[in-house]
């Protein structure tokens, strides 16, 4: 047996309340530790005393890949089948299997693993080794387990060409495909690193991918985050500290008021890697994509898998999670409303609470502040209320929403989703005030410092300004494209357009990120309602709020004038020019407008197209689609449908993001369907809609929430940042003290 030196980076959660002395001490310790690590790493091979352990199904290429990796590292190569099992048993593996049978074979195989020891080697496991828990635990203690993830259809084709007719577990009535699917659960349990291997990828390429993956695993220093407003020159010590995924999840907003983005950009997938996910389920796609976006030093792959299963398991009413449905012509709907609160926000907010709970330190309590224009509120309340009780004792949430700026059903949802650690507060203003007030509170070092010192409580954000909110949205845009390929609508590589009802720009940004990661999205179409500041900006480069007032519409989730996530996009297309981003958004804050440079506008218009829709056209689209297809669009999706009809050139399919279930906007839907008399009771409105037997049916979770809500209470406060701060302190006292 041997000891493994495994670098785990120090995690520095910078809060405004930390003193400069403490901050400098922590930073100096981190710099010193990082320097020690770099010195150690530069004077050792990639392995050191560790083993690289290749795991995967039979036919994955473990033996061949292992030999190539061993040659490149100039280290011993061990094949468990040939060098351990057959030597131990003095007979071939197939003979042993035939002699003792399936169950006894696994035990004998496991016993051989438990007696095996090596260091600094490349080891190729058998396809059935991971099915013996004690044996695999022993192997895992001695190195890094790399899962060669090959699509099942490819494995079956390879085994057929190799004329393999017997593997462990094969028996009458059990197909080869069933065995391969059954084994996946064991592979997922044990791996540290996943390497995607397509059907036509050469072993030499796979070996290089293994080495790259191991290097990434060993060095989390490569995956740091910066603020969109950070300057490359003259950054002070506090700004210069490295931020990792776990830091940005808990901190939310950068200290300079900017938003966090990965310093080296997003990971890229090859076409072969994407094609390997065509047959995968939604949760499988989510895990593969998120593993590449979240370093295992922040969240290990096994824990991430557990979180994803919890988030997307029983909480969604559709087994496909985010199904793609044909609407008309070459228009397809991406249905994002099958989560518990009936909007696309569930995709992030069933996941993020568990990421947050895992990443935060146990040294203090956390209060999450949220501003919502409608759908975020119930989604974030529901998500955080599902945390285990031990986490709810140290994590609480306040949801601020415009008291008169959401639909009656949305308000009922937010009231009904309140729990012992999650509350809703109505603000007598609009969403832009709520969002701006929260940003001001986060950057008020006196207030955040007071909360930390007095109550041991730090503030965090769960709005789409939080980086973790964007990652699950990337997944469903990528998954929608793969579904069209799987359905035979397109072949991989063929372009699609995407049209998204757009308010805070996060959903559009996620689609653009999916494009950067290798999904062939041609254009992202931004659809606005009468609050069409984004449409004007994309067409002219002028972001101008002077003289504009927010208009309450039938689509409240996009009743937004200040689109926060636009800052991340402008940072990207300006080649990470933090000074320019700071200048633009300071000008917007102080003068109410800014003008984009001509070259940046040209780049923007290569990616984005925009249009807007009137209230009348929105209702007319709902009526028209229902009349011709029997399908009811919600008011936000109707906006996207109208803009799609106007702007698509029909040379490629277009995926319309259906961001909410129509049940949430029953009065507007009933009006669009030309119902003369509308009962003001939300529950009665849903019952009336259900009588239409339309597609999709009434949302199950929404109906149950309204039945429970009754006349629930919530707090209401004035549009004053100081008043919001008082509410925050009072709720901290009541929950944590």
Automatic annotation (TrEMBL):
Q: Which family does it belong to?
A: Belongs to the threonine synthase family.
Which keywords, in A-to-Z order, does the entry hold? Amino-acid biosynthesis, Pyridoxal phosphate
Q: Which cofactor does it need?
A: pyridoxal 5'-phosphate
Natural source organism? Dasyornis broadbenti (rufous bristle-bird)
Tell whether Amino-acid biosynthesis is among the UniProt keywords: yes
**Which GO cellular component terms, listed alphabetically, does the Swiss-Prot or TrEMBL entry include?**
cytoplasm
Q: Which CDD domains does this one have?
A: SK, Thr-synth_2
Pfam families for this protein: SKI (PF01202), Thr_synth_N (PF14821)
Locate the N6-(pyridoxal phosphate)lysine modifications and list their residues. Answer: 345
Q: Which InterPro entries match?
A: P-loop_NTPase (IPR027417), Ser/Thr_deHydtase_PyrdxlP-BS (IPR000634), Shikimate/glucono_kinase (IPR031322), Shikimate_kinase/TSH1 (IPR000623), Thr_synth_N (IPR029144), Thr_synth_N_sf (IPR037158), Thr_synthase-like (IPR004450), TrpB-like_PALP_sf (IPR036052)
Q: Which GO terms describe its biological process?
A: amino acid biosynthetic process
Which pathway does this chain act in? Amino-acid biosynthesis
Provide the gene name from the record: Thnsl1
Identify the PROSITE patterns for this entry.
DEHYDRATASE_SER_THR
Q: Which domain of life is it from?
A: Eukaryota
- Name of the protein in its database record: THNS1 protein
- Recorded GO MF terms: pyridoxal phosphate binding
Question: Sorted alphabetically, which NCBIfam families does this protein's record hold?
Answer: thrC
Q: Which residues form the Threonine synthase N-terminal domain?
A: 239-312
